[in-house]
């Protein structure tokens, strides 16, 4: 029986029901600590907001949520554990590092002049999965990597290589961030080149591309595709995400797609200039259930295919049972 590290302990893979594979309770955009005139972080209010949202999702049948916040994006796993505990929804936290342009790259580039940073990153990721994150005792359940648009930098490749090695040492699956629907193929090639089974990888934000060739290449290579930014119309209209998804489901890709929104519930630093509801009105973690699933049904997608994406695939991804 396989188990998953969650913020509140271990859960059995078979106990996962509907699982959102990419949502964020909290993000701190790198540099947020520098904004010392920002109002103090109101942890209590943030927790209340997150618990309310979790309860709304629980009412829709959600049993678990992956919060793939990497180490360098304001991660707070104790906050995730508190919210999970209060709402009764599992939260799976991540180890790993974000893309070069907005992550911890300066630190590792400095060290890279003297040390083997791939080895150091690998050690960190393994420790966070097997022993826990800092003094919290909370263990990461997934490993996050990321690339910026249209290129994989040397730093990002180092992170991906370290993630692959940490995966091989621990069995924790890998989830990725991509920009503009690019570099998923390159991410996967580096991972599989290090011996990672592609069925343990979600290429995140694959719905940022509407190029079916890109999607089919990733399917053929054996990865899961994250259609995980529904509602984020600022980056890509839902119509394109949905058109791609319906097409892929039409060719039987339902066993390799997972659904989510990449919503961010709380932000460190100053509040956003406009409320999120104004900037991105559909960017709500209930959106898949309220609008996308009905649209899929209208297009003739069966409940079995919808269940595959929301329940079976997260289980298989964590269990590593292969296909
Ligand atoms: Zn994300």
Summarize the structure.
This protein is an alpha/beta fold and 323 residues long.
Record keyword descriptors for this entry.
alpha/beta, 323 residues, 41% helix, two-stranded antiparallel ribbon, 11 helices
Q: How would the global form be characterised?
A: globular
Helicity range: 40-55%
What value does the average pLDDT take?
Answer: 96
Protein structure class:
alpha/beta
Described by its quaternary structure, the protein is single chain
Q: Could you give the distance between the termini?
A: 17 Å
| Strands in their spatial order, largest beta sheet | 3-5-6-7-8-9-10-11
Which ligands does the model contain, each kind named once?
A: zinc ion
Instruction: Tell me the strand percentage band.
Output: 15-25%
Poorly predicted ranges? none
Order of helices and strands: EEEEHEHEHHEHEHEHEHEEHHH
Count of strand segments? 12
How many whole angstroms does the radius of gyration measure? Answer: 18 Å
Count of helix runs: 11
- What does the main sheet amount to? 8 strands, parallel
């Amino acid at each position: 029986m396989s188990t998953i590290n969650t913020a509140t302990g271990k859960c059995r893979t078979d106990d996962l029901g509907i699982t959102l594979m990419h949502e964020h309770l909290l993000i701190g955009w790198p540099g947020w600590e520098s904004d010392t005139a920002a109002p103090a972080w109101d942890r209590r209010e943030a927790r209340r907001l997150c618990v309310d949202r979790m309860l709304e999702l629980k009412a829709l049948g959600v049993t678990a949520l992956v919060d793939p916040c990497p180490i360098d994006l304001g991660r707070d796993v104790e906050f995730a554990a508190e919210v999970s505990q209060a709402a009764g929804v599992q939260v799976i936290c991540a180890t790993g590092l974000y893309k070069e342009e907005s992550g911890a790259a300066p630190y590792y580039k400095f060290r890279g002049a003297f040390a083997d940073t791939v080895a150091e990153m690998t050690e960190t990721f393994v420790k966070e999965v097997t022993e826990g994150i800092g003094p919290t005792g909370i263990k990461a359940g997934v490993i996050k990597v990321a690339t910026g648009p249209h290129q994989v930098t040397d730093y990002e490749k180092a992170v991906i290589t370290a993630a692959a090695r940490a995966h091989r040492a621990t069995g924790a699956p890998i989830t990725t961030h991509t920009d503009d629907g690019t570099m998923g193929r390159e991410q996967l090639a580096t991972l599989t080149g290090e011996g990672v089974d592609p069925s343990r990888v979600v290429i995140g934000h694959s719905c940022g591309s509407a190029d079916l060739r890109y999607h089919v290449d990733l399917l053929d290579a054996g990865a899961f595709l994250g259609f995980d930014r529904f509602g984020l119309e600022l980056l890509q209209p839902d119509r394109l995400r949905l058109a791609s998804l319906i097409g892929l489901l039409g060719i039987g890709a339902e066993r390799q797609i997972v659904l989510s929104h990449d919503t961010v519930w709380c932000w460190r630093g100053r509040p956003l200039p406009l409320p999120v509801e104004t900037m991105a009105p559909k960017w709500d973690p209930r959106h898949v259930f309220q609008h996308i699933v009905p649209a899929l049904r209208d297009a003739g997608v069966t409940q079995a295919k919808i269940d595959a994406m929301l329940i079976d695939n997260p289980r298989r991804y964590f269990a590593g049972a292969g296909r």
